[in-house]
């Protein structure tokens, strides 16, 4: 039996939407982008999912392996992953019958940068 190691998911290119909040006044478009991303993180289950993905060995986790750690049903976990994906905070890849997810470190870094002082 040959065991294949699955590759880490490819990461999308991420550009910071704006300068740090304390550096200049935030424009409408940038404010909407940040609000969408922070809203995606403003849920305890989604924060747990991001934490699980960010600390995952190998960099990616099958959606089916997130159900037990967050204590929610598979459809609920899928919904939360969809919200995080739409905000650009996670990426996904279908592998056979399963979907694997990984956090997008550059997106989290962009949010951190937006909150940093000048």
Categorize the overall geometry: elongated
Number of helices: 5
Which class do the helix and strand fractions yield?
A: alpha+beta
Q: In sequence order, what are the helices and strands, one letter per element?
A: HHEHHEEH
Report how far the terminal alpha carbons are from each other.
56 Å
User: What's the arrangement of strands in the largest beta sheet?
Assistant: 1-3-2
Beta strand %: 5-15%
What's the story with the biggest beta sheet? Answer: 3 strands, antiparallel
Number of strands: 3
Helix content: 40-55%
Provide the gyration radius in Å.
16 Å
Low-confidence stretches: none
Task: Give the overall average pLDDT.
Answer: 85
Description:
This protein has helices at residues 28-41, 44-54, 67-70, 74-86, 105-115; strands at residues 61-62, 90-95, 98-103. The chain starts with 27 loop residues before the first helix and ends with a helix. It is built from five helices and three strands. A hairpin with a 2-residue loop joins strand 2 and strand 3 (98-103). Helix 2 crosses helix 4. With 118 residues, the protein is α+β, with helices and mostly antiparallel strands. Strands 1-3-2 form a three-stranded antiparallel sheet. It is elongated, with a radius of gyration of 16 Å. The model has no long low-confidence stretch (mean pLDDT 85).
